[in-house]
Structures are given as C-alpha cells and as structure tokens.
Specification:
The complex is a heterodimer. Chain A is built from 21 helices and 23 strands. By secondary structure, chain A is α/β, with parallel strands linked by helices. Chain A is globular and about 85 Å long. The termini of chain B are far apart. Classes of the chains: A alpha/beta, B alpha/beta. The interface between A and B is large, with 71 and 61 residues.
C-alpha cells in the first residue's frame, strides 16, 4: 500500500454501502448520491434491503445495502460490481463479497470485528480477510465506532444516539476518498434536524471526523476523482420510480382537470406511491387506504364512475386479487390505471426483489375475453412519463390500463432533468356535452371506439352500467348471443386502436444487423449499457426496448425484420418472448432469462451475446 | 347535499322507474322494497341525477337496472367499496348501496364493516332473505341455525350473523330494520337514512317465495305482527301488541317483556326509546331481540350523529391546501434539492 496520496481520474465508480438494516445505510447511500449529483455526475442507485424490518443484528439476513454508480459519462445502471465496499460489520462483508470488483477497496469498521460478530456472520475463523482470500484487496480497517464515540464524548448525547451516527463517519471517509465536498450533506442535517441543533452539530462533527481521519492516516490511497458528466442542460433533481409514478398521476390530474383518486392497499414494493399521494392533499389528491386489495381497486372504480381519475397501486399478489374488479372496469368501460410494481413470485415470493414475472398476469390474468392496455416504464425517472401516459390513455380511450414497473425501478433513483408541464399535452376525456340528444351510454367514438362519459350529477344522462354484458349501444343488459360476440370484438378492437397513440419503436445501436437485443420495462439500463459495450467492441448489435406491450408499436414487425437473430432478455422464464412470438410469429426468437430476484448485470448480457456471435 | 329545486319537488315515484322489465319472481319481497324506495325518493328534494344506486351480485343487486337514476351493478360483495369510492370522489351525490345477505354478510362482510367503521355517508339497504336466491337455494350467513337448504341437507351447523349486531359492533351509527311489505314504515326509514349523515344500514326482512318462503312469516304475518314486532320510535315508549298492552323493561342488565297492568308494571316502567344515545349497549340488546322470547325490533334502532369520512377527507384537503407552497405540478417538480447543469 502506498503512503503517498495520488489523485486518479476515473470515468465511473461504483460504491456499495452495507451494514445492519438498522445502520442507516440507505440514508448514507442517498446522501452520497445527492452530493455526487450536485457536483454534476450522472448516476444510478439501487437499494438492496431485506424484507424483514430488523432481521437479527449482525447476521447475513439482516444486511442492508445501497449501491451507487456515478460517472463522468452517461450512467444507465447501478453497476454490476463495486469498486468500493463500505462494510459496517462482518456480515455485511460476507454478504457482499461477490459484488466487489477483484482488488477493490473495502472499508470495514474494525470495532465490529469481534468473535461474536464473526460467528453471527458465519465465519469459521477470526480472520475474514484470510478466510475469504481477500489479501489482494485494498482493505481499510478503521475503528469507526471508537472514533465516533471519541468525537462525540463531550456532546452530552446518549450512547445509543452516538453509535447511530457512525454511518456518517464512514460517509466522511468515502467523501475524502472521492474528493467530494461535505457541504451538501451538512445542509441536509440543517434541514432535517432544524429543531435539534445538538443533533446537527453532532452529525457534522462525525462527518468531518471521518473525512479528517481518512486524510490524516493516509491509508486511503489513492483518491479518485470522477469529473462532472456532460449531461443535457437544465434543472435536475434525483427521483426514484415510485415517487415519479405518483407525480406522473398528479400531472395527469392537472392536465385533465380531473380529481385524482387513489384507492389502494399497502404492499411492498409499491407502498411509497400511496404514501406520496397521501401527502399530496395539497393537490386535492384523494387517497383511500382500503381494507384490502380488492377494495382498493373497487373504490378507484367507484371514483372513476363518479368522474375522477381512478388509480390503484399494487404488486403481483395484489394484482391477482384485483383481477375480477379489473374485468369489471373492462366491462363497464371506465378509465382506470392499475400500477403493478413487480416483485419476485409466485405467492409472497421475494417481496423486496425485482422480477418481470407478472407480464402474462397483466395481459391475460382475468376471466373471459378481457383485454386491457399494458405499458411499462423503463427507468426510475420515466415512471413519471409513463404514469402520465397511462392516465392519458385510460381517460381518452375509456379503458383500464396496467402500468408495469418493478422493485428495481421503484426504489432505484437517478438524476432527472425536470420537465416543464407546458411541454406535456392536455388530456381530453370524452365527456358527453350537456344537451346532447338521444345520447346512448355505449355509443362510440368512430376513431377510438371509446364510449362517451356521463357522470352522476349530470342531469338527463341517468344510466346504468355494470358487469353483465351490455347492449352494444344502450348499455342495458343484453344476453343476445350476437351482441355478446360483437362486444367482445369491440372491446378488443378498442384496445388495439390505442396503437394510434403509441410512438414507433426505436432501435438503439445498429439499425440492422446480426443481433437485436429485445427488452421491456425495468431492464433498459442494463441492456443499454451492454449495447454500448458491445458496440465499442465492434459487434453488430441493436437494442429495441418496449414500453408499450399491448398494443405493441405499429412498426414492431419492421424493426424485428432488420436483424438475423432476436434475443429477448427478461427477468422471468420468458413471458414477453411468448407474447411477442404470438403477435409476430414470423421471426426467430432466442431467450435470455434470469430469475434470481436481481437485475441483470451488464457483463452477463455482453458475455451471452458474444457467445452467440462466436457460435 | 343537493339543494331543493323546482324540478326535484315535482318528481314522482314514476320518474324513478327505468324502462327495464323488472325480472324478480312474482311475489318476491323485492318488488315492495323497490316501490317504497321509489316513493320515498321524491320526498327527499334531491334532483334525480344526484342519486347513484350501486349494488353487488344477487337477486337484490339487479335493483339499479330498474331505477331511472345513475346506477352501477358491480361484482359480488364489493358494492360497499365501489360506493365508498363514488361517495368519497363526489360527496354531493346521494349514494345508495343495494345488497343482500350473501353479498354483504359473506363475500362482502369485510367491506361492509370497514365502510361502517369509516362512516362513509352511504345508505345501505340489506335485503335479508336468509338464503342464496340467485344461485337457487343454498344457505347464507344469516340462515337460521339448522336451516335445511341445498348445501345443508342435514341442517346448517353454523351460527348466523345478525346484521344489526355486526353493524353496531363495527361502530355503526345508524341501524334500522323493517319487513318488506311494511311500505309506510319503510318509506319513513329510507327518508331518515338519507337524512342521516354517515353510513346508514337498513335491514329489510325480505321474503324469497321460491327458496325460503315464509322465512320471516312467524313475525311478519298480518295476524301476529303486532304481537311479535316492536316498532321503535325515538322518544316513544317500547310498547307493542294488538292491545298495546305489552312493553319492554330493563331488569338488571337485561331486557324483559312485561304486560302493562300485570305484576305491578305500569306504562311508566316501560323503556323509552333513545335512538340517539351514543352508548350502543341498549341498541345492541334491541337489535338482538329474537322471537319467541322477545318481539323483533323494527324501525330505527340507532341513529347517532358523527362526522363522515368524505367530509373529513375534504376538510383535510382544504387545510393542507391552505398551507401548501405549491401552486402547480411545476412547483412540485422543482421542490426539494435541485441543481442546474449549465
């Protein structure tokens, strides 16, 4: 290890913070990300936390991690492997071993290296470095707990509060390592603990102590510099997928002039959407925390019936419970948006881990011929756009829309160039104008096939809707066989015609060639990064990433036609590939799947494609 | 709630009938209940377009199709949830939930109790015929213990729910009971249910002529009803019987039927009905009175004032709005930590 401080310019760096789930690693990671964003790096983050709130302390099951990837260039993923791992205890070290780059830097809290903690983490010996063969790594053992206690010994804080701030000591060290200013984090303390000056002071002191410790012991060498990324001009903020989803609906409420009503039931990893919307009473948002998933969607349908923008949010198990009611919205032809923040399944599955295995459920998981529009967001920040778009389609076409995101998008965050609402289109629901003669509830717009919308309170348009089959025009109950068949086709054709609003599918990379990577939803960042790397190496590869699943973009066939082989990459056993092959059978599809409750790594994809190209 | 207007005051029962053919069986109690509602609505001084009738699944749940108002025939058990959404979204509407004992007590039990707990201002009418009619004769959660039906050929081995007990247990503020053919009392109750702010639950003992005929006859029969029903009216003594000679007294912690003029009981000993007392104790006892030990209580058993869910929701929105720093979505997007890339 060198004793001299070098500064090394790096294109990109991945840092992973890991500790007990009570150690405040999510906050530490978020603060580091914010500072990196403020100084102009592009970045992407991903929290990886256990589903238990507090699993037994010191055990592998209780390790909570937060990974941030920041760069001088565009960053599309939270990164495959960490250059730097901060491990607050032996369990955090053990749990993250496979996620560190060979020879990377590992900062550990030496005070946590006790016999008791080794046993809890499952180490056989008292030397994890040797046991895990980490000799080639840059290991920094810092007495983080002791120094934190020492720093705060005269602050008059209780021992528990003192130890709680040790994460700030570690953060200070990492700031020094990457040559980052402390001021943004200090400003955070000032805002967060406005009424507790003592706490502000203590946190600042510990942060500085960590920074100074790293500087004075000169063990942390070399330091890295990652210069600002050349990103588009504008005002930026960090945003995660769930917040972006919530805000997208509020934007749709503003652009349609309709009240936003969210009937929902808490479920990981979707709860934050309901939480954010509950906070937004200032935008007139009505949230209704229902007694169950079914009541969640049913209250939303009831609100749609009353003329609101009805929304319900859930994850896979909740979508299963909502199926019957979603069918009711299909039949009643009311606007409705259902958000499915996918997680590992089946059953309770892996509540905190991302997967893309709800696609077929969203497309087909209902009784009867029950078509709905299905769209998927592909980055944390574009959840805003797709939530807005889901609402726009639902309201203008009088159709239920399922918006698919996943745990990776929901909790991952990235800098977002804040859009101006003036650049977003207005939303025009097909309300029946007052004074319309001979109005019929199921008479349709000839283009969209959407029915016109009369809401309770409008005199002269009293009518009944419901789950029984409807007469083609009057909307009254009809058991006529021919009418039923016509209605089945009409409902399907209505969904098909949403294609008019769907932009053409874009191909990134090569417009034609040997291999087309195909993805949908939350895997975009990894596929895009893999594409960049493959292209850099001179391979003939393109990427078509789908945001519109049903209906598919009009030019889908054309795009697929330009490549010899089509590799559909999904975090499931191959659901989109089957759907795609059904819609566009005249192509040869290959599948590449991962079902581990984890995102792809870029390397996995590039290696797979290279193997295909060699074969 | 809606204002008086000229149009609404001129409305008659006929204005509330839709053009759909009513398809309940001849002799079904549903016909009478609908007639009573159609007669009560014009008396409410609410414009027709402000009524929404929302139902689940079952014979009774066909109701909205027969009403010339806004209507929504939902899915089994979920009417309370749909109606809660409609009322919360637009508190200006008069929202009625029409349901049966299967729809509200079995598959929809969860939604019903939570709606009652929240006190959403709905008028919920439960058509209780103690049987599944639409599916042709299986026992329901209100079927009497031992009832022989298609799915209980040897008699049920389940204790029935009593809607009143369930509603009061769920902190219900308004509960009334009546019998399908009692047109006068039913209209009275519906008017009061509409006036009451909060969830009003009205249980109508309804006869299913096909699958559970005369289920309520023992108390509903013309010959016996005065002796076997106690009509409750707020502020009036609990006297019943053809000769108005029987009454209810409180003895210790229990209700008891006495004969006025016998065993030293006078009219002064008879309990006076207080529907408005917050304490649900006596209301629960009244709701649970069973024949033959007691007469069955009909009329408004409980009617207690309390703030409604949708009102509190709107109030909160107003309060938060007043203090908000945001005028538009643009403001929201720019809030918190932002930075400029030049």
């Amino acid at each position: 290890m060198s004793k001299k401080t070098d500064v090394i310019e790096r294109e990109e760096v991945v840092v992973r913070f890991a500790g007990d789930s009570g150690d405040g690693m999510q906050l530490t990671g978020t603060l580091f990300s914010d500072t990196s964003a403020f100084i102009g790096n592009d970045l992407s983050t991903f929290p990886d936390y256990p589903s238990e709130i507090r699993a037994p302390q010191g055990t592998i099951g209780g390790v909570s991690g937060f990974q941030v990837h920041f760069g001088h260039k565009q960053v599309n993923t939270p990164g495959d492997y960490a250059d730097v791992l901060v491990a607050m205890n032996p369990a955090a070290l053990k749990a993250n071993l496979k996620l560190i780059k060979s020879g990377g830097t590992i900062i550990v809290d030496q005070d946590s290296f006790t016999e008791k903690n080794f046993r809890k983490a499952g180490y056989q010996t008292d030397d994890p470095i040797k046991e895990d063969q980490l000799e080639g790594y840059n290991i920094i053992k810092a007495p983080i707990s002791t120094l934190t206690k020492e720093t705060l010994k005269d602050e008059g804080l209780d021992p528990k509060s003192i130890l709680r701030s040790k994460n700030m000591f570690a953060l200070g060290m990492v700031y020094w390592l990457f040559d980052r200013p402390l001021k943004y984090t200090e400003q955070f303390f000032e805002r967060k603990f406005k009424k507790k000056p003592k706490v502000i002071d203590a946190n600042k002191k510990v942060l500085e102590a960590g920074y100074n410790y790293a500087e004075t012991v000169e063990l942390l060498t070399p330091t890295y510099r990652v210069s600002p990324a050349p990103i588009e001009k504008g005002i930026y903020r960090n945003i995660d997928g769930n917040k972006a989803t919530a805000w997208g609906f509020i934007a749709a409420s503003e652009k349609s002039g309709l009240q936003l009503f969210c009937g929902s039931y808490p479920i990981t990893p979707a709860s934050e959407i309901l939480q954010e919307l509950s906070t937004r009473r200032d935008f007139g948002v009505k949230t209704f925390q229902a007694e169950d998933e079914i009541a969640g969607i049913c209250t939303a349908i009831g609100a749609s019936f009353a003329g609101s923008l009805g929304v319900t949010t859930t994850s896979g198990p909740g979508l299963a419970l909502k199926s019957e009611a979603l069918g009711l919205a299909v039949m009643a032809e009311l606007p409705l948006v259902v958000v499915d923040v996918q997680r590992g399944g089946p059953s309770t599955g892996l509540p905190t881990k991302p997967e893309q295995s709800d696609l077929l459920q969203a497309l087909y998981g209902r009784n009867g011929e029950s078509p709905v529009v299905v769209i998927a967001a592909s980055t944390p920040s574009n959840c805003f756009y797709y939530a807005f778009t889901a609402a726009k389609i639902a309201l203008e076409h009088m159709v239920p829309v399922v918006l698919m995101t996943d745990g990776f998008l929901a909790n991952g965050s990235e800098p977002w160039r804040i859009p101006k609402m003036a650049d977003y289109p207005d939303i025009h629901p097909p309300f029946v104008p007052q004074g319309e003669k001979d109005w019929m509830p199921y008479a349709r717009d000839p283009e969209k096939l959407s029915r016109t919308w009369a809401v309770p309170g409008q005199p002269g348009y009293e009518h009944r809707i419901g789950g029984l089959e409807k007469d083609e025009l009057k909307g009254s109950v009809s058991h006529d066989p021919q009418n039923h068949e016509r209605m089945v086709y009409l409902r399907e054709e209505k969904v098909n015609r949403v294609v008019q609003d769907v932009p053409d599918l874009k191909v990134e990379g090569e417009p034609s060639g040997e291999i087309l990577l195909v993805g949908w939803g939350g895997t975009y960042g990894h596929l895009r990064t893999a594409l960049d790397e493959l292209q850099k190496e001179g391979h003939s590869v393109g990427l078509a990433h789908f945001n519109y699943i049903r209906p598919l973009p009009a030019n889908t066939h054309q795009v697929l036609n330009q490549f010899n082989r089509i590799v559909v990459c999904e975090l499931n056993r191959g659901q989109f590939i089957d759907y795609l092959a059904m819609q566009h059978p005249h192509h040869t599809y290959l599948k590449y799947n991962k079902v581990q409750g984890q995102p792809f790594t870029t390397v996995e994809i590039t290696e797979h494609v290279k193997k295909l190209l060699e074969a | 709630m809606a204002n008086n207007n000229d149009q609404s005051t001129k409305l008659t029962a006929k204005d509330f009938k839709s053009d759909q053919e009513v398809r309940w069986c001849p002799g079904c109690g549903d016909h009478a209940i609908m007639n009573a509602i159609q007669r009560a609505l014009p008396q409410m001084n609410i414009p027709r377009e402000k009524f929404a009738f929302i139902s689940g699944i079952g014979c009774s749940s066909r109701f909205p199709y027969y009403m010339n108002t806004y209507g929504f025939h939902g899915i089994h058990g979920r009417a309370s949830a749909i109606a809660s959404g409609t009322k919360s979204a637009n508190p200006d509407l008069s929202v009625w939930q029409i349901t049966g004992d299967g729809d509200s007590m079995a598959i929809g039990g969860n939604h019903l109790i939570h709606t009652v707990r929240r006190n959403v201002d709905l008028n919920i009418v439960i058509f209780n015929n103690e049987i599944y009619g639409l599916t042709k004769g299986q026992y329901s959660p209100t079927s009497k213990y031992g009832a022989v039906t298609k799915t209980s050929p040897y008699g049920t081995i389940e204790n029935p729910f009593h809607p009143g007990e369930l509603v009061i247990g769920a902190q219900g503020k308004f509960f009334a009971r009546s019998v399908d053919l009692n047109m006068k009392l039913n209209q009275e109750i519906f008017l009061e249910a509409q006036k009451h702010k909060g969830t009003s639950v009205v249980e109508i003992l309804q006869n299913c002529v096909i699958y559970n005929d005369k289920a309520h006859a023992v108390i509903a029969d013309k010959k016996h009803r005065e002796d076997r029903q106690l009509v409750l009216r707020h502020g009036e003594p609990m006297i019943f019987g053809k000769n108005r000679d029987k009454g209810i007294v409180l003895e210790g912690l229990r209700l008891k039927v006495v004969e006025i003029g016998k065993d030293g009981y006078t009219e002064d000993d008879i309990l006076v009905h207080d529907a408005k007392t917050k304490d649900p104790g006596i209301h629960l006892m009244l709701a649970n009175m069973q024949y033959p030990e007691f007469p069955v209580a009909v009329g408004i058993i409980r009617s207690v004032e309390a703030d409604t869910y949708e009102h509190k929701l709107e109030e909160q929105i107003d309060q938060v709005r007043e203090q908000s720093e945001y005028q538009s979505v643009d403001d929201l997007l720019q809030s918190g930590n932002t930075w400029e890339v030049k």
